[in-house]
Amino acid sequence: MPMMITNQPSPECWQQGQLIEVMITDLSDSGDGVGRLGNRVVFVPDTVTGDRALVRLMRVKPNYATGKLHQLLVESPNRVRPRCIVADKCGGCQWQHVSWDYQQLAKQNQVIQALKRIGGFSEPAVAPILTTDSPLGYRNKATYPLKRSATGSVQAGYYQKGSHQLINLNQCPVQDQRLNPLLGEIKQDIQQLGWSIYNESRHQGRLRHLSLQIGQRTGEMLLTLVTTDLNLKDLDVQGQTWLNRYPQLVGVCVNHNP
Questions:
Q1: Reported pTM
Q2: What is the Cα–Cα distance from 190 to 181, expressed in whole angstroms?
Q3: Per-residue H/E/C for 24-73
Q4: Residue 7 has pLDDT above 70, yes or no
Q5: DSSP-assigned beta bridge partners for residue 44
Q6: From CA 88, how far away is CA 149, in angstroms rounded?
């Protein structure tokens, strides 16, 4: 049974931590839902135009607020189930809960509004947006921060929204799917090699990031390790092992970032 608010706080009296009921009427440039009550605007991630939602206020400013989705009261027809099982946690993408058709309309409208608001055009002539066949598999480069879990296993993924809490991934539906096998296997290799992983709290360790890139037409791949120094045991041997294992891999690079 959806939770309803009987005493909705007026926008002038909003406070951090309060629950408000809001209708989402637009999407921001970053993909957050936008709701308006009185003279106040509230930005709510993980919502879409047409949602009626119960929102917990996280930050309250004089003219706007940011909120966190607490409960969906009415689902928008523009909402779809994300293809990624960690889409609600991972900060790697923001649009998976928005239907593909509505994404195209929303993004075209963002161009029009920017030309009106910033460019000063009254009626900008904007052609229909050019789209790909699928909203997935379009990223040809992904750079993943690395860390060790509490049990010592090597993890790679994206940070949770608004944090440095790593969401561990073995695949990502928005990156080119030909890169997915490398992600899990290379994490295992790093684990077996015993290379130290950089700890940003202690400022210790070597490996910071794992980067994978692919030429979408050629299929050629590039693997890059971002490391604080170059003293990785058996790096040359392991690099050649990767080149031999993956025929499409044409280079293994080290980005020295002390």
A1: 0.81
A2: 15
A3: EEEECCCCCEEEEECCEEEEECCCCCCCEEEEEEEEECCCEEEEEEEEEE
A4: no
A5: 33
A6: 21
Instruction: Check: CB of residue 2 under 8 Å from CB of residue 71.
Output: yes
Distance CA 215, CA 200 (A): 32
Q: What is the pLDDT of residues 97-124, one digit of tens each?
A: 999 999 999 999 999 999 999 999 999 9
> For residue range 63-84, what is the model confidence (pLDDT) as tens digits?
899 999 999 999 999 999 988 8
Q: Enumerate domains of the chain plus CATH numbers.
A: 11-74 (2.40.50.140), 141-256 (2.40.50.1070)
- Structural tokens at position 171: 């695949």
Instruction: Count CA within 13 A, CB hemisphere, residue 34.
Output: 12
Question: What does the pLDDT read at residue 86?
Answer: 85
DSSP lists the bridge partners of residue 183 as: none
Please state the φ and ψ torsions of residue 162, each to the nearest 5 degrees. 70, 20
What distance in Å separates the CA atoms of residue 73 and residue 67, rounded to the nearest whole number?
Answer: 15
